[in-house]
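Worked example 2:
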Amino acid sequence: MSWNGPTVVWAAIALLLFAAEALAPGAFMLWLGLAAAAVFVLVLAFPGVTVLAQVAAFVVLSFVSIQVYRTWFRKREPVSDRPLLNRRAEQLIGRVVALERGIVAGRGRVQIADAFWDVSGPELPAGALVRVVGADALLLHVEAAD
């Protein structure tokens, strides 16, 4: 076992990938880092492995480790008790509000709390009550409230 050039390179790649995961967590770089660490151990144990074999081992181990994550760990993530927490527009679905500006040519405007929202829906005059039935980014889809 010797610390030759490829050994140091794989150790550095593994550490950089782990650092990238720590700075921008998302569980993706972690698995690539584990693959690089495995190649580091391989090169440390068998110093005569060619560079092509090292890269091939990294690619295969990266693919396998990501598939293991997707099949085993991703399914076990806890389900949120508040799935709409950061989806403000979707939280408004079902609310009935008055049109602040009537819907003309499919577009209008409502005020909900302290925010104004653009809406799309059927032609309706200002002041008509509408129900929010959908959301697309910052655009609410509405229909006449009965």
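Residues 3 and 44 are 7 Å apart (CA to CA). The chain has two domains: 5-76, 88-144.
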